[in-house]
């Protein structure tokens, strides 16, 4: 960082560290013990789609990579778009296969990044649910290299369970690199898997 950056209060952006995703299985143990949340086996990657043959080819490679499990009885990856025009790839595993789900999410992010589409990556999420039916996602912000909890209120609508999000954030402080700036805890309404 240069002198002028320091003088004007600018900082270098955090470099994405996809290996942070591998902390989710240990965080899941903490989530279960502290708040009763269990993995659902669902995870998704969100990205801004780009027009062009190169991006279509990479997206097909990613889907083929994840769909390889279907030959062994797995469920194919599902692609969708949300109300804001962002693309999602939803991966499914059994709830006990959280490490495998995280591997899939890491592979999608890595493949897009390796092919020059890192700037299009927005976030990845892993879904959890408790016995009362409350959904929770651990959301990884690609451009920040941090996680935050997102808990939509049960019953639909665009309302958040903010007290639960703060409780989960406090519980996971030793497990994951958490986003300190609460204004970056963006709601992911309509995310597949929630």
Characterise this structure.
The protein is an alpha+beta fold and 194 residues long. The protein has one domain. The chain contains five helices and six strands. The chain has helices at residues 3-7, 24-35, 53-67, 98-114, 162-171, and strands at residues 38-47, 78-81, 87-92, 121-129, 135-141, 146-150. Helix 3 (53-67) packs antiparallel against helix 4 (98-114). It starts with a helix and ends in a 23-residue tail after the last helix. 32% of the residues are buried. The model has no long low-confidence stretch (mean pLDDT 86).
* Helical percentage: 25-40%
Sheet having the most strands: 6 strands, antiparallel
Q: Span between N and C termini?
A: 40 Å
Please indicate the count of domains: 1
Radius of gyration: 17 Å
Count of β-strands: 6
Order of helices and strands: HHEHEEHEEEH
Category by helix and strand content: alpha+beta
- The number of helices is 5
Low-confidence stretches: none
Principal-axes geometry comes out as globular
Determine the strand fraction and express it as a percent band.
15-25%
Main β-sheet, spatial strand arrangement: 2-3-1-4-5-6
Mean pLDDT: 86
InterPro entries: PspAB-like (IPR054383)
Pfam families: PspAB
């Amino acid at each position: 960082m240069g002198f002028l950056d320091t003088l004007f209060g600018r900082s270098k952006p955090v470099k994405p560290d996809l290996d942070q995703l591998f902390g989710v299985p240990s965080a899941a143990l903490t989530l279960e013990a502290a708040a009763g949340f269990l993995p659902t086996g669902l995870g998704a990657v969100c990205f801004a789609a780009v027009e062009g043959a190169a991006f279509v080819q990479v997206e097909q490679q990613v889907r083929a990579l994840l769909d390889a499990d279907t030959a062994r009885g797995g469920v194919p990856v599902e692609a969708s778009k949300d109300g804001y025009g962002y693309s999602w790839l939803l991966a499914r595993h059994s709830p006990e296969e959280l490490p495998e789900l995280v591997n899939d999410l890491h592979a999608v992010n890595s493949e897009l990044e390796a092919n020059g589409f890192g700037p299009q990556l927005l976030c990845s999420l892993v879904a959890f649910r408790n016995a009362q039916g409350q959904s929770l996602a651990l959301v990884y912000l690609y451009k920040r290299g941090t996680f935050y909890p997102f808990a939509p209120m049960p019953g639909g609508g665009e309302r958040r369970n903010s007290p639960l999000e703060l409780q989960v954030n406090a519980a996971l402080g030793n497990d994951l690199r958490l986003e300190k700036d609460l204004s970056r805890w963006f709601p992911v309404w309509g995310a597949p898997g929630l």
